[in-house]
Amino acid sequence: MRHIISVLMENEAGALARVVGLFAQRGYNIESLNVAPTDDQTLSRLTLVTKGEDRVVEQITKHLNKLIEVVKLVDLTEGSHIERELMMVKVRATGAQREEVKRTCDIFRGQIIDVTPTTYTIQVTGNEEKVNAFMDALSGATIMEVVRTGVSGLARGDKTLSL
Amino acid sequence: MTQAAHEPEMLSGGEMLIRSLKDQGVEFIYGYPGGAVLHIYDAIHNQSDVKHILVRHEQAATHMADAYARASGKAGVVLVTSGPGATNAITGIATAYMDSIPMVVITGQVMSHLIGDDAFQETDMMGLSRPIVKHNISVRDPADIPTIVKKAFYIAESGRPGPVVIDIPKDMTMPNEKFPYEYPDRIKMRSYNPVKKGHSGQIRKAVNALLQAKRPIIYSGGGVILGKASKELTQLARQLNYPVTNTLMGLGAFPGTDRQFIGMLGMHGAYEANMTMHNADLILAIGARFDDRVTNNPAKFCPDATIIHIDIDPASISKIIQADIPIVGPVKPVLKEMLEQIEQSKLRVDDEALGLWWEQIEEWRQRHGGRYRSDDSEKMKPQHVIETLCKITNGDAYICSDVGQHQMFAAQYYKYNKPNRWINSGGLGTMGFGLPAAMGVQLNYPDAAVVCVTGEGSIQMNIQELATCKQYQLPVKVLCLNNGYLGMVRQWQDMNYESRYSNSYVDSLPDFVALAEAYGHAGIRIESPDELEAKLTEAMAITDKVVFIDVLIDPDEHVYPMQVPGGSMADMFLSKTERT
Ligand SMILES: Cc1cc2nc3c(=O)[nH]c(=O)nc-3n(C[C@H](O)[C@H](O)[C@H](O)COP(=O)(O)OP(=O)(O)OC[C@H]3O[C@@H](n4cnc5c(N)ncnc54)[C@H](O)[C@@H]3O)c2cc1C
Ligand SMILES: Cc1ncc(C[n+]2csc(CCOP(=O)(O)OP(=O)(O)O)c2C)c(N)n1
Ligand SMILES: [Mg+2]
Superfamily assignment of B382-559 in CATH? Predict the structure, then answer.
């Protein structure tokens, strides 16, 4: 099962290394991970996506909670939540392809954020599924470069992960 | 008070470090100097409250501090230099980590501006130690030192204890840069709040299950000793009249000579302990972590048992074996609340079922018990040596063990009636632990009988510490069960490799008696069983000197019982020819 674990932790040097180290030491896998300070500069918010049996994911959350710098965490996939990922794709856009790529981009409500006579750089946001679908839709084009932020997310409604 | 009394004293980083240790109540630190910590050593020189013990190898410093913690429950303190000093401390840090022992390890580091440049004696101690510490902290501003020290002790000693490393770049300790010193009374951290008590609803569920059990067992571990709850454990067990087994780390938490004690469980556990576990309908696990040396094959583990698991660390619960009733909390308050709830409960222990259960347990006890063969009086049996030691010391000595067969014999045949007396490396199994551990205990308990039970293999991993014993007059007794082999390895080779003894023979052994004498100590050799008791008594009577007691034992002895790999707890080899 895929889980999105969202972690609020002290914005201190070494805290990220501890999280990543934990996954490496205990043989857990990380599908994606992102981290940045929050509105409160002393705190960082880290989101990671992992796959594993429930038992394993439970161990992961227990071990993350044990890290001294971790203040709180939540497994977003346990409740209803919103997740988003941002992707930027640089594609070859020449001849007939140029129009085709633009059309696909529009269908996925992507934005062209950089243009040259031969390329488009497209930005797409959405959940992992949508972003993957966009990649599939581009399969006819020549993809030159892809960069993805990995998933970020939060719970729907009143629920928050905060102090 | 005058204005001046409030004015904080101005101290350098090095001085603040030592003053903080003093204000924390630290009497001894164990260490070894080097370039990166010379300012700190100078600060040590200029005061007399915190005493420094100079070892001969940094690993020994960590084991000394660790053993002090195991005996006292308070964090031990280590000070080593950067680079090789720090890496030499790694084994000892990992040893403490695996057994949840509180320790504060201060490592020197190269100057801040040189970090990352492959400077002389630079190693990334933060990175190296990360997987084997509860926490580590790097000092970035000398003014933070008192708070960091306080934090380190708080983290090391609270919750599930463990080692904490403080890495200090040399420029944080400059003698001429002074800062106002104040040692904080307490530390509050928003990201770290260890649990203080168990969930009452869970405890109620546990009490209900406990009182309805027909074939119960209490399986207690190192957590009871770490949580200083042997009194509560003993009270609970006595009140219920349930059988008690201890892990290797839990020995002494319940009196070893008590009728209700059925021995250690696990790989080399007592036959009756493993049988009782396997056939139980209820297991009350207290501060024990279902280690693979205990459970054998988890898929075959105790098929009929409802499992109640008390542990301060949620990550220990349902890690290996799914708990039916988990209780997260410190043992002491949880057991206290359990006792209260039992008092109030309408349920009563099923005496009839319990009577039958005890009958069955007694039968297992009689049938085997993993006893060694003492009929062969020609040969010196290691088990007999330990029994004799137990008799001579009235079961009241601190036994600090190394790792191997001798360790298992010391666990099985010495009867520990008090907690904190059995000091050994269980989780990491660190050969070389025993002698420095004994020294750490002896230093802090000068009047106690302290015995290092070791093998000729293990003792040579830190034998240089005999010099430290001399320097600080630490009259430990070294009881070397000398079989001339890496016995534990040899046993596995006998059992699994058709006795192909690949590198398990210790060739060119030194004359340990002469070696002890060369270090300025006494040495005696015991070669025949008839002289054992007299000579051992004589050695133990010498209280002002180290005595190295080299006992030549039967090299063919194996440790039994031994669980059959892949089997259940009840699948055991009972001797070279019998199996359950
Ligand atoms: C050669 C060799 C052979 C061995 N054979 C055996 C064997 O036959 N049998 C055996 O038992 N072991 C054996 N061991 C040791 C084994 O490897 C483990 O170290 C041991 O079983 C772990 O003991 P434990 O479960 O008590 O846990 P510990 O490592 O002592 O852990 C303590 C547990 O208690 C918890 N805890 C800590 N403080 C508290 C508190 N205040 N309140 C509540 N919980 C707390 C911790 O979170 C942890 O889960 C052997 C080791 C060696 C080297
Ligand atoms: C540092 C270290 N290296 C290797 C081992 C593996 N090992 C476990 S027991 C043992 C043999 C110990 O020999 P000895 O000290 O003579 O004890 P004996 O088993 O003979 O009683 C070895 C090599 C270990 N536990 N620790
Ligand atoms: Mg040996």
Answer: Thiamin diphosphate (ThDP)-binding fold, Pyr/PP domains (3.40.50.970)
E strands, chain A, are 2-10, 32-37, 43-51, 70-75, 81-92, 111-115, 119-126, 143-148, 152-155
For the domain B200-366, what is the CATH code? Answer: 3.40.50.1220
Number of structural domains (chain A) is 2
Q: Which residue's CA is minimally distant from atom 13 of ligand 2?
A: B486
Which tops the pLDDT comparison, B272 or B369? B272
CATH of the domain at A147: 3.30.70.1150
Catalytic residue list contains B346: no
B170 is catalytic: yes
Domain of residue A60: give its range: 2-79
Q: Does domain B3-181 have CATH number 3.40.50.970?
A: yes
| Same-domain check for residues A123 and A137 | yes
Query: Is B121 noted as a catalytic residue in this protein?
Result: yes
Nearest neighbour of A68 by CB, restricted to B155, B315, B318: B155
Interface residue A96 vs chain B (CB under 8 A): no
**A29 and A94, same domain (yes or no):** no
B222 within 8 A of B249, measured Cβ to Cβ: yes
pLDDT tens track for B456-509:
999 999 999 999 999 999 999 999 999 999 999 999 999 999 999 999 998 899
Q: Which ligand is nearest to the CA of B461?
A: 2
One domain, residues A17 and A66: yes
Active site residue B290: no
Closest ligand 2 atom, CA of B488?
Answer: 19
- Checking if the pLDDT of B27 tops 60, the result is yes
Coil/strand/helix, residue A4: strand
Per residue in B352-366, pLDDT (tens digit) is 999 999 999 999 999
Q: Check CB contact under 8 Å for A58 and B131.
A: no
Q: Which of A19, A11, A20 is nearest to A41 (CA)?
A: A11
Q: Whose CA is nearest to atom 25 of ligand 1?
A: B288
Q: Is residue A163 within 8 angstroms of chain B, CB to CB? A: yes
**From the CB of B431, is ligand 2 less than 6 Å away?**
yes
Name the packing angle between helices B529-541 and B382-392 (round to 10°).
40
Is residue B574 within 8 A of residue B506, CB to CB? The reply is no
Distance CA B555, CA B533 (A): 20
Q: Is the CB of B428 under 6 A from ligand 1?
A: no
Domain coordinates in residue numbering, chain B = 3-181, 200-366, 382-559
Closest C-alpha to ligand 1, atom 4: B293
pLDDT at B448: 98
Beta-strand runs (E) in B55-199? 76-80, 103-109, 135-138, 163-169, 178-181
B423/B248 Cα distance (integer angstroms): 10
Statement: the pTM of the whole predicted model exceeds 0.95: yes
- Average pLDDT for B434-451: 98
Establish, for the pair of chains A and B, how many residue pairs have beta carbons separated by less than 8 Å. 34
The yes-or-no verdict on residue B1 having pLDDT over 50 is: no
- Taking alpha carbons only, the member of B371, B319, B299, B305 closest to residue B571 is B299
Q: Which residue of A has its CA nearest to B317?
A: A59
- Given pLDDT bands bounded at 50, 70 and 90, which one contains residue B4? low
pLDDT of amino acid B7: 86
For chain A, list residues with pLDDT below 70: none
Residues from chain A contacting residue B131 (CB–CB below 8 Å): 21, 25
Please name which ligand lies nearest the alpha carbon of B92. Answer: 2
